[in-house]
Amino acid sequence: MGTTDQGRTGKPVATVDIDRSDPEYRAWLKEAVRRVQADANRSADTHLLQFPLPEQWGIDLYLKDESTHPTGSLKHRLARSLFLYGLCNGWIRPGRPVIEASSGSTAVSEAYFAKLIGVPFIAVMPRTTSREKTRLIEFHGGRCHLVDEPGTVYEVSARLAAETGGHYMDQFTYAERATDWRGNNNIAESIYQQMRRERYPEPAWIVATAGTGGTSATIARYVRYMQYDTLVCVPDPENSCFFEGWTTGDPGVSSDSGSRIEGIGRPRMEPSFVPGAIDRMMKVPDAASVAAVRALERAIGRRAGGSTGTGLWSALKIVSEMVAEGRTGSVVTLICDPGDRYLDKYYSDAWLSSEGLDITPYSAAIDSFLATGVWP
User: What is the C-alpha separation between 5 and 159, in angstroms, rounded?
Assistant: First the structure.
């Protein structure tokens, strides 16, 4: 059996255990690529929802609702790109498992695509990952391998790939390169297409949180490629090193604790995080993220995950700065995944109490700002 070894270099090394010119393999590959591309062809674009702000401000706030993808999150786009990248590179092979290090949502989407092309899937995740995410991974035919220390997911994934002869997908290395940032209906191109008929079609800011860093890199590169004036802000939760790495320029920074805001924040500077493409970062308290998703439900009747709250809190702060400066324009952020995956966390007062999180002052700040236009 051939083996695969993937480390921080992101360079897979596999023994040549199949003849890649073999007609049977080529037929399998063509069919696998067709199935993944067909998924994209079946999917309509995700909605761009408007968050209600006072008309007199002259500012529009939008949320691109990525929770409407077939697997319920922003990571559906990434998983599709990663599978096409792995297939076309010859890394994903018939009968061999795909393994991924994940905080949950990417694994849900990758389990879906693995089932679509008929290969096994193993998700390596922190034991604290929400129960609903593990259920969804298993629903799509995947298997969960839980670890006690979040920082070990990389090494465990590489080890499982070596032991099984499978492919370690390694989203944290390949997210920024597997997606075509120049266009091809990526998330950035989609945002600008949907904004064309709005009163401020070119956003002043796009706010995108970072797990791998791939989404923020795609958006920022597209903005520069298309010569827009839009600025890109990346909010970072507690127990994540992206903000420190960006402000200090040190790629070796790390965090000893895992993020409580699932899907974003990392204990190390991930290879797919591209600091030079980002215009601004904000550090967001976890309690503020939870307060923001609850404010979102009050405003538009939609529940979302904590990462959406991190982005919404930062977007509202940017809007407050625009109001204070008398500027008009539009701001776009993302609904990353649905809140029903986190009913036992961000929508549970018992969980907030157990984590020592008090969202009261942050909820009051949001309500006061929306009522007065002044950030407390």
Answer: 8
CATH class of 48-70+187-371: alpha beta
What are 13-37's pLDDT values in tens digits?
444 577 888 999 999 999 999 999 9
Q: How many Å apart are CA 149 and CA 102, to the nearest integer?
A: 13
Task: List all residues 6 or more positions away from 47 whose beta carbon is below 8 Å from its beta carbon.
Answer: 64, 65, 68
Q: Is 206 in contact with 230 (CB distance < 8 Å)?
A: yes
Q: For the chain, which residues make up each domain, given as ranges? A: 48-70+187-371
- Helix ranges, the chain (H): 23-42, 75-88, 105-117, 131-139, 153-164, 171-178, 187-194, 214-225, 242-248, 286-300, 306-325, 349-355, 360-372
DSSP state of 98: E
Mean pLDDT of the chain: 93
Residue 48 has pLDDT above 90, yes or no: yes
164-202 tens-digit pLDDT: 999 999 999 999 999 999 978 899 999 999 999 999 999
Structure pTM?
0.92
Neighbours of 364 (CB within 10 A): 12
CA distance from start to end of the chain: 62
